[in-house]
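step: validate -> pass
step: tokenize input -> pass
step: predict -> running
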Amino acid sequence: MPLRIAILTVSDRSARGEREDLSGPALVQAAQGYGWDVVHTAILPDDLSTLRDTLARWADSDAYDVILTTGGTGFAPRDVTPEATLAVVERQTPGLTEAMRAASLQITPHAMLSRAAAGIRGATLIVNLPGSPKAAVENLAVIAPVLPHAVSLLRGDPEAEKGHRA
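step: predict -> pass
step: emit ->
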């Protein structure tokens, strides 16, 4: 069963129609390239309560296995995507963000400025990705190999544990 993906672009300018969203479509193309179903996309402004409420509603809907956000993970005053994510997840998944930062540091020292977060709410995984199309796709490529297994575990698939046993 392919992963059901939702992609949320977080950008004041894109939400106002002042700048074309390039990261969301780049992630759609990348996710489809992995054979996943992108079932929903949206663009929202950098607003903590709106992001928090949307992430919670999407995760609680059971319509998506993975919610990927793009944007709002840096140092700018309105970059609040990690705070919104951490406000709604029940369990953090630091290994995903650690892996993304480690791989990104091989490309640019700016990777250490990422405040991206990731975690689980119910049976949905939420992962923050950078706002640039190139960086968003590169970071997704880092975690893509483990996402199907992660979703199998979250779904409670009894077959998911087989690879863990000797």
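step: describe -> Residues 48-60 form the longest helix (13 residues).
step: cleanup -> pass
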